Amino acid sequence: MPKDIKILCVDDERNVLKAFRRLFMDEESFEILLAESGKEGLEILKSNNDIRLVISDYRMPEMTGVEFLRQVNEKWPETIRIVLSGYADTVAVVEAVNLGQIYKFIPKPWDDEELLSTIKVALQHQELRWENNHLNNELKKKNLELEEMNIELKKMNGNLEHLVAKRTEALELRNHVLQLSRGILNILPVAVYGIDAEQMIVHCNEYALELFPCGKLGPLGHDRQVVFSADINLLLDGLEKAKVSKMVLNMNNQKFYCEARRLHERLSQGSVLVLIPELHFNGQ
């Protein structure tokens, strides 16, 4: 138990106050304050806010013990309040409990060991109550912090959902554009080939598949040197020095206007080859 626990004893009889002093003489952890009236007791409480326990006589002149403890309860509710009385009056007990919110009613004359035991147990209960209050306050603080974090997380999730929705919308639009572009390329009456920087054919439309069939995927995934004729490969080799390379060639008993262009975008390196049948060009 902590040292210097202040206890206030209030009684109009000096002999009783002396008895209190003798009672706590061997208790080093207690500091005993004495008052001969309720008024004096209130003054002591005003100048000593750290008094933890108050023992008061029930019957005192001017201000009864009940009235004194009622004011103590109103102004210093954390104090432990004990009433002493030489009267076995049930009404007095009820009045003291109701108005003063006392911890215990002890009859006079008291048993020293019983009174000391009662005081020590009461102080232990008080410390436990304070510790519980502290823990409850800490728990409320942590819960409040968690609520604030949850609010922030909800905001972040809302923003993330918005960003995901926008990203999804952009991807859906891009996918739609790609599908549309593929559809447009497939209905063109010309052959279109996409060749990556490693000279692999990575794209071709339907007409291009017909010109150079190479299995189920056509020329896709094949090296262009293997798929195309020497003339077309020579045309593509010309892109090493020029951005555009053109020629006219005969293939499959048909004349084609051929044009190859080098891609310059950082993420789209390679070349595009277009073969236009004679029917669709004016002899360029």
From TrEMBL:
CDD domains reported in the protein's UniProt record: REC_HupR-like (cd17569)
Domain Response regulatory, chain residue ranges per copy: 6-123
Coiled coil: 125-166
PROSITE patterns the UniProt entry points to: RESPONSE_REGULATORY (PS50110)
Signal peptide limits: none
Modified residues (4-aspartylphosphate): D57
An individual GO BP term: phosphorelay signal transduction system
Domain of life of the native organism: Bacteria
Keywords on record: Coiled coil, Phosphoprotein
PANTHER family per the UniProt record, alphabetical: STRESS RESPONSE REGULATOR PROTEIN 1, TWO-COMPONENT RESPONSE REGULATOR-RELATED
Identification of the protein by name: Response regulator receiver domain-containing protein
